[in-house]
Amino acid sequence: MNTMRDPDVTLAAWLDEGPTDLPDETRRAILTALPTTSQARRGPFAPWRLSRMKTTARLAIGALVAIVAGGGALYLLGPSQYGFGGLPPSPSPIVVPSQAPSPGQSSPSPAATLDPTTWATYTSTQYGFKIGQPPGWTVVPANRAWSFATDAQDWLSPAEDAFFAPDRSVRVAAWAVPLTDPQMNQSWPDLERWVVDYCQRTKNTGCATIHDRVVPLCVETRDCHPALLVRFADDVQAFGFGGVLPQGKMVVVTVARGESDSTVARYGGATRLLEAFLSTMNVWPPAYPESQDAAATFVVTGN
């Protein structure tokens, strides 16, 4: 016949024989909190009960037993990343190492210096305008005149003078669009209306909000024939006419990459690259004088 054992004695024995040694102060705290109230029985087979113990005391005992048992379980399961049941350490800064290119991926290209004063001058045999060509870039001349009927929706039209970066990742193009009204008023509002119509006819996106994105420019600063620079989702375009540009035609220059595209990051973005090309065509922000110092400012800081 099994002898019923006092739970206080059982718990004390478990602590003595448990899977881990507890500090003396912890053991004393646990044993001090244990109830010492004598137990009473209602009959030979009645279950044990705490006769005069309050509810809060019973809950305290249950919590202590759970803590002790949990500590043993953590010991048996082995150490966690925070130690044996300890709290996580204070957060520390996370240092992300620079990532090497994965197999088959090319290394990031170094930053490119944009100095249009060192560029060679290219003269378009198809359209007659002059534009700078960066060192190491390749030009593919236009082989015919541009028209809405055949080129409006062709983003790689052979009717455009195209300039390619040394790794062929960036394409800059320039061409001239015949004006239906060669005598169109040379003002920024008139030019903006033309650009909106051009945007719609070429099936570009964001045509309705062009007014919110236009940057006014001048073809020649002395007379300031109007020009505009507009960012689109997948490219950045500039439009200008008059001055040194062909008469009766709208000259379009575009960087066929979005502003935040990684391929133009080395140039400071698509807008910065386009500004460099425009500076070689004598196209400037309205407030800048026509000088070499202005060219550097235009390219380095933008408008």
Structural write-up:
It is a single chain. The chain is 27% helix and 16% strand. The protein contains 7 helices and 10 strands. The protein has an 8-stranded antiparallel sheet, with helices on both faces. A two-stranded antiparallel sheet has the order 1-2. A hairpin with a 6-residue loop joins strand 4 and strand 5. It is elongated, with a radius of gyration of 40 Å.
CATH topology of the largest domain, which one? Answer: Protein Transport Mog1p, Chain A
Strands of the largest sheet, in order across it?
3-4-5-9-8-7-6-10
Number of strands: 10
Helix percent reads 25-40%
**How far apart are the termini?**
97 Å
- The run of helices and strands is HHHEEEHEEHEEEEHEH
Share of residues in strands? 15-25%
The global form is elongated
| CATH structural class of the largest domain | Alpha Beta
Tally of discrete structural domains: 2
> How many separate helices?
7
Radius of gyration: 40 Å
Helix/strand class: alpha+beta
Q: Which residue ranges are poorly predicted, with pLDDT under 50 across at least 5 consecutive positions?
A: 37-53, 63-108
What's the story with the biggest beta sheet?
A: 8 strands, antiparallel
CATH homolog superfamily of the largest domain: Mog1/PsbP, alpha/beta/alpha sandwich
Task: Give short descriptive properties of this protein.
8-stranded antiparallel β-sheet; 2 domains; two-stranded antiparallel ribbon; Protein Transport Mog1p, Chain A; alpha+beta; 303 residues
What's this entry about, in short?
The protein is of the alpha+beta class and 303 residues long. The chain contains seven helices and ten strands. The strands form two sheets. An eight-stranded antiparallel β-sheet has the order 3-4-5-9-8-7-6-10, with helices on both faces.
